[in-house]
Amino acid sequence: MAPQPPIPKPQNKFNFIYGHRKPSQNRPTVRGGLFSNRQSLSLTKTQTPKPQPFDLHNWDPHFLPQSSTTPHTFNNNSSLFRLSPIARFIADSFRKNQNRWGSPVVSELNKLRRVTPNLVAEVLKLQSDPTLASKFFHWASKQKGFHHNFASYNALAYCLNRSNRFRSADQLPELMHSQGKPPTEKQFEILIRMHSDANRPLRLFYVYQKMKKFEVKPRVFLYNRIIDGLMKNSQVDLALSVYEDFRNDGLVEESVTFMILIKGLCKAGRIDEMLKILIRMREDLCKPDVFAYTAMVKVLVSEGNLDGCLRVWEEMRRDKVEPDAMAYTTLVTALCKDGRVERGYELFKEMKEKGCLIDRAIYGSLVEAFVADRKVGFACGLLKDMVDSGYRADLGIYNSIIKGLCGVKRVDKAYKLFQVTVQEDLEPDFVTVNPMLVSYAEMRSMDEFCKLLNQMQKLGFCVIDDLSKFFAFVIGKEERTMMAVEVFEDLKKRGYCSVSIYNILMGALHKKGELKKAMSLFDEMKESAFEPDSSTYSIAIACFVEMGDIKEACVCYNKIMEMSSVPNVAAYCALAKGLCNIGDIDAAMMLVRDCLANVMSGPMEFKYSLSVLHACKSGDAKVVEVLNEMMQQGCPPNEVIYCAIISGMCKHGTMEEARKVFLNLRDRKLLTEANMIVYDEMLIDHMKKKTADLVVSGLKFFGLESKLKAKGCTLLSS
Fold first, then answer.
1. How would you class 300 by CB atoms within 10 Å of its CB: exposed for 0-12, middle for 13-18, buried for 19 or more?
2. Can you give the residue range of the structural domain that contains 707?
3. Which range (351-365, 545-559, 604-618) has the least confidence?
4. Measured between alpha carbons, how far is residue 262 from residues 50, 284, 285, 296 in Å?
5. Distance of alpha carbon 664 from alpha carbon 539, whole angstroms
6. Within-domain flag for 659
7. CB-based contacts of 400: which residues, under 8 Å, 6+ apart?
8. Hey, which residues does 657 pair with through a beta bridge?
């Protein structure tokens, strides 16, 4: 037997030790591991080039560095690394072609042997471009023998919803039916969940109606989702109609179903219907527990329906359900805020009898309500009970009682409570001392007033700022304006004075009609060491206009301009009307433009004045249209609008067109006969002035002014 040749030993493959696979299209980068080829790995780190210093002389704005980032349509870059190789290849083909569907993308996809439905779902899960996703979805369905599965349909629905194409997503059941894949409850559940989370109740009901069209019956949990989405968005009638379908389908309610209905009806204020559901819940399932009743109470309190809340409370008593501390706190606080402090106090005593934990917020609500009801004795009793129970009163409770004591003229006891807040380091603020300051001012006890100011200063109060707040509070009632002025006269002698206090009192006196006293404060301020600010001059402008002294008002306006400041809107309106009343129409229109250029939101009549000026170029009919629009917006014409008509018609139209507009306003009883005569005279005077200005401009343009002066003509100088 011939010897057999030796079996050749298999050649060693060094791929494992010296290198990895070749780079491929899907994985172009080859990274070495522990046994990789050391010769192919660089041990030195790549040096990043240092940025060159910027040279303005070599800078070319037409050649800007282009960004190296490529746009992507996937909503998370890290998700790309979790894709399968073929899915990543599809994503790369989209990105290479700028995420636009076309023949290049199709040719890339045709390189694949086959795209499975699960692969389509994988790509669509991370896709954010709805157009590209839809094109890819339909391309995949054209493959021979291909049928989408539920996963791919669901992924397309999510993709469309992410791009706010929820209307297109709602058409997926029809698409599935046309492709021989009838939709199931899961597909409708996805659409319902999308609309419910996005608060689209009508689209939610639309999907439910479509669900019935396809004869797909929801289960109990999906019915609950539909009813809850409708109830949360105040579509109570639609939710009740769905509930009727629920009962007609022979389904049995769960506790969640009942609570969704009850909370929705409570929120809508439909208490009678809610009680019917509650009775049905007792009969068919079980009695609501304390948490269910507390949820009802919270919903009704949030909607301000305390009567319904008390009815629910009675139902809770009927079911012998003991309310917890949360239910008591919610109801007592709501009753106190609504002014039903007696009922709230009854529940408070009931809590104490049962030994419930009483929150400090309940004490605060009751104290505040008793003070508002002028029952300060009950409030003080609650404070004593609170301290005896081991609680420490907060500053809000002390502030309420101090305010109540001052309201019943017991400022001495209020001052003692103020001392208690200081001793307990509660850091009293302006709200604490303001009632006492008001009481001292009403009693004209200026010594006690200043004594309190000194103590405030020792405690770190900013006394001047707090005095400004005090005067602003006092003049809130017009009958106390003169008292505020008297208090200020006394405080000035003691050195308590500021520009803001002057402004507050001047504004109050102007509002009350005491113009002379307001102007006396203005003159006194100018003579003192205090410099008037823009607010001071703005109030002075309004006072001067009402007194008929337009010249002084203009001086105040110029002062504001010199300060590089801006008057307030009220001063602009007052000065514009004053200039219109004296016939200085050009200055008034200039002021209107200045106001709209400087303030954030100018008055409506100023905005329509510019509209009227522009409409005058198109004739009287266009002006009447603007006036009609103005009145529809609730802004009747006034002096500024009338002067805008005169100015615009003298510049762009004729006197006859202006008179037609005024006649229209008179016929509509927006302009009296007397005022029409006045504005007609202003129209004639303004037209004469404009004509004279044109003549003078023409003479100056042709150089005839000097010749007329040489002949002794005084026309131009006049």
1. buried
2. 616-711
3. 351-365
4. 69, 15, 14, 7
5. 36
6. yes
7. 364, 367, 368, 371, 379
8. none
Stated length of the chain: 718
* 266 domain-assigned: no
419 and 452 Cβ atoms separated by less than 8 Å: no
Distance CA 192, CA 196 (A): 6
Helix (H) or strand (E) holding 718: none
Q: Which residues contact 479 (CB under 8 A, 6 or more apart)?
A: none
Q: State the Cα–Cα distance between residues 213 and 547, nearest whole angstrom.
A: 77
Query: pLDDT, tens digit, for every residue of 453-506?
Result: 999 999 899 999 999 999 999 999 889 999 999 999 999 888 899 999 999 999
Q: Is residue 707 part of a domain?
A: yes
**How many domains in the chain?**
1
Q: For 55-64, write each residue's pLDDT tens digit.
A: 545 555 444 4
Distances (CA, A) of 367 to 398, 402, 430, 437, 536: 9, 11, 20, 22, 41
Distance between CA atoms of 119 and 703, rounded to whole angstroms? 89
Instruction: Please state at what angle helix 360-372 crosses helix 341-354, rounded to 10 degrees.
Output: 150
Mean pLDDT, the chain, rounded, equals 84
Q: Could you give the CA distance from residue 171 to residue 152 in angstroms, rounded to a whole number?
A: 15
CA-based nearest residue to 227, from 198, 207, 205, 252: 205
Residue 607 located in a structural domain: no
For 72, residues 6+ apart whose C-beta sits below 8 A from its C-beta are: 95, 99
CA distance 424 to 221: 56
Q: Does the pLDDT of residue 312 top 90, yes or no?
A: no
**Cα 663 to Cα 60: distance, rounded to the nearest angstrom:** 65
Q: Is the pTM of this model over 0.70?
A: no
Tokens of 620: 């009287």
Each residue of 111-161: pLDDT tens digit? Answer: 888 888 898 888 888 888 888 888 889 898 888 888 889 998 999 999 998
